[in-house]
Amino acid sequence: MTAEPFTVTADVSYRPYRVPPRCRKARPVDEVFTHYISIPSVTSNDAPVVAIVPDDRKIAASNPGRFRETL
Question: What pTM did the predictor assign?
Fold first, then answer.
């Protein structure tokens, strides 16, 4: 059984500088676009059961102050 993909919709707005016609100076222009991201779904049998996480304790011991543990 295949599940439906999960779709994320993001509305993005930004202000790039554009040179209008018959002008020399760039001006900020508001632009908006919608981006759709489809994330495939998997069954529990197909899903990974482990993640490999490196053990950084040796690195943290050699560089005190670089890593911090919060309890």
Answer: 0.42
